[in-house]
Amino acid sequence: MSWQATVVTLFPEMFPGPLGQSLAGRALENGVWSCRTEDLREHGLGRHRAVDDTPFGGGAGMVIRPDVADAALAATQADANIPCVYLTPRGRPLTQADVRRYAAGPGVMLLCGRFEGVDERFLQARGVEQVSIGDYVLSGGETAALVLLDACVRLLPGVMGSEQSGVEESFSDGLLEYPHYTRPAVWDGHEVPEVLLSGNHAAIAQWRQAKAEETTRERRPDLWSAWLARKNENRTAAVGGAAQADLRGLRRIPT
Ligand code: ADE
Fold first, then answer.
1. Is 133 annotated as a binding residue?
2. What pLDDT, in 10s, does the model give residues 34-91?
3. Does the annotation place 159 within a ligand binding site?
4. What atom in ligand 1 is closest to the CA of residue 135?
5. Which of 32, 52, 173, 244 has a CA positioned 20 to 30 A from the CA of residue 191?
6. What confidence tier does 171 reach under pLDDT thresholds 50, 70, 90?
7. Whose CA is nearest to atom 10 of ligand 1?
8. Ligand 1 in contact with 147 (CB < 6 A)?
9. Residue having the nearest C-alpha atom to atom 4 of ligand 1
10. Contact between 28 and 56 (Cβ < 8 Å)
11. Which residues does the record give as S-adenosyl-L-methionine binding sites (predicted)?
């Protein structure tokens, strides 16, 4: 059974779009994953197939109607076990942990908004997860859906050439990745860090770890704090475990 992406959108022709190329495209051709779309417009109301209406309470923009969104969702006949995700800047930030969770399951059902958004009652009643791909506003959820799908598909078994590249990358252990260098060893007067040419694997690993930490500290103080907290937690647990082992040892001493 292939991993199933279903996308509810007003622009079905945007899919698979760039995901029809390269690694994801080959995996799509090989049946590793499938990409179906459901045209929201087909579930619109009246002669103009209206999918939206003005917001209760007033204000700018239009809101996608709950009955229209629900009819489109029902038409997909998506498996109830597949997470339903609405792409919106109001959502919680998408993380690599989410991506791993989606990729490990049977697939995802994605709802792409346009206009001001989707009626909240529909999202709540149907248990829709609300996810954002970053703190900026796109013109619609489609490009965000493509980002989410790209991140998931590359993790599907057999999609990436080297399994290792999936493990040793930014975010896999909460740090950004170390920098990379390739030939020529001197380019435009700039040299490659000497340690990388040394053949000393332990020294290289140590240098890469230090660079990953430095880069994360400088660029992502949020990730850095979380990483430090986790490290301290692990250390406390290890010390606690050792202390308990000592206690157990003490108890064995006959009094
Ligand atoms: N739709 C519009 N902007 C978005 C964002 N930042 N993330 C996800 N969906 C969006």
1. yes
2. 999 999 999 999 999 999 999 999 999 999 999 999 999 999 998 889 999 999 999 9
3. no
4. 6
5. 173
6. confident
7. 88
8. no
9. 89
10. no
11. 113, 133-138
Which domains does the chain possess?
3-153 (3.40.1280.10), 186-251 (no CATH)
139 C-beta closer than 6 A to ligand 1: no
pLDDT tens per residue across span 112-143? 998 899 999 999 999 999 999 999 999 999 99
Sign of the torsion formed by the C-alpha atoms of 234, 240, 241 and 243: positive
* pTM of the complete model: 0.90
Cα of 240 from ligand 1 centre, angstroms: 44
Q: Is the CB of 134 under 6 A from ligand 1?
A: yes
The preferred substitution site among 90, 133, 149 for testing ligand 1, maximizing ligand atoms within 8 Å of CB, is: 133
Is 93 touching ligand 1 by the criterion CB < 6 Å? no
Protein residue closest via CA to atom 2 of ligand 1: 138
Binding site membership of 132 for ligand 1 (Cβ less than 6 Å): yes
Q: Edge-to-edge strand order for the sheet containing 117-118? A: 52-53, 63-64, 117-118
> Could you identify the residue written with the tokens 């040394």?
198
